[in-house]
């Protein structure tokens, strides 16, 4: 079972207490964007077999959104962090790089 620590309230929560929100760090597209950009925003998502950055909501807790970095192969969690940032914190990227040499947050592994 996946277990994440909510960075907002500090509670360790099982996945049954959380609501998934899809891929983290997306560039949002709105009314002024092209049709192609809006289509890409709505439908084209990464679905990696490996390191992935995701959004989660502590639905049965504080109710706040946060981001998590984890490995989809092993369910290993590298860390959780605020949803108010535009990129993963360096300490989490360092933890990922220790386990996955050559990892790049831009292109994956």
From TrEMBL:
Name of protein: Sarcosine oxidase subunit delta
One GO MF term: sarcosine oxidase activity
GO BP, one annotated term: tetrahydrofolate metabolic process
Pfam families, sorted: SoxD
InterPro entries: SoxD (IPR006279), SoxD_sf (IPR038561)
